[in-house]
Amino acid sequence: MASYAAAIPFLIVLLSPFLPGSGRVNVPPASAAECADGSSLAARIGLAEMESEVSGDKLLARLLTRAGLQLASTDALVAAGHLKPAKRKLRAAMHSLTRFRARVESLEHPPKIDPTTAGILAAHATKAITLLGEVRATLGTTLPVCPTSTTTLVAGTSTTTTMATNQTTTSVTTTSTTTNTTGQAGDTTTTTFTVFTIFTLPPKLDYAAAAIYGEANLSSGFSPDPYSVGMTAGGNVDVSYLGGACSGFATTAPDLRINYGSGGSLLRIYFIGANGDPKMIVNDPYGNFYCVDDSFSTVNPTIDFDNPAGGSYDVWIGSSAASTTIGGTLYITEASSNHP
Known about the structure:
Layout: E1 2-4, E2 24-26, H1 32-36, H2 41-44, H3 47-53, H4 58-79, H5 83-106, H6 115-138, E3 147-154, E4 157-164, E5 170-179, E6 185-197, E7 215-218, E8 227-233, E9 237-238, E10 249-250, E11 256-260, E12 266-273, E13 279-283, E14 289-292, E15 302-306, E16 311-318, E17 326-333
Parallel strand pairs: 4-6, 7-11
Antiparallel strand pairs: 1-3, 2-6, 3-4, 5-6, 8-17, 9-10, 11-16, 12-15, 12-17, 13-14, 13-16
Helix pairs in contact: 4-5, 5-6
């Protein structure tokens, strides 16, 4: 007869070496300490500590609650082996924390929150986003394996088999046998480790990454208007995977992050290139992507947000060909008379 011990799911990021020329990665078993660690993602990033610092602002509390629910869903999906939807949930949680950070920063000027508290919350959120980004980047490729054990009694011989509980493609098995004091065959232990097949995925835009040209913290009525940033953009990420009108090649990290305090009737973002045919991609505070190519009878892109929400707008400028650059100036304005 057999008894089965339940697997203990976990989410600990562990880099594993590629097997030379095989296109696979051999995932080692997790240590006993790792398997005993049932810490949730929310606990690992200190979500409760952030919640304890938030008082009097319903939006901040709501954003943290939403992030907590999204992280709990991520934990559950990983435990069930559904890694692709887990990555989507984890991305949503990172976006909630990004909006939380932007909200904290918008309350600093003019001060509506204690500056020391605001600094602590913003720094904590940044560290949390970074940690979750590292977890998300390795989900499904380097996840260590917590084992389950089954014990079968056969005529005085004990056989223990350790089995990987995550999705598998190939198994590597080792067996060792011990001899008892009477000279008869004793315990035989068979250990099975998972080998995951690794596919090289094309690079994608990462709105959680630090912006190459920094952040613009703007509130309604900002001056000077237009606000401008000179840059050299373009990269090797084919943004057509976003679908729709999205085309061109950009860097993984945003070129500029705009933290907007809301209150205006129009937020216009446009780029005037010094060469080539620039493209623009913007990720809004709700996680939606918008893409545009030409505007105002020019080859330069413009994106308008009417009655814009407060939060982070991540902006990428793309070039027409991979790994080529395009220079120019990115402009942010609230005046409809400003355009390419």
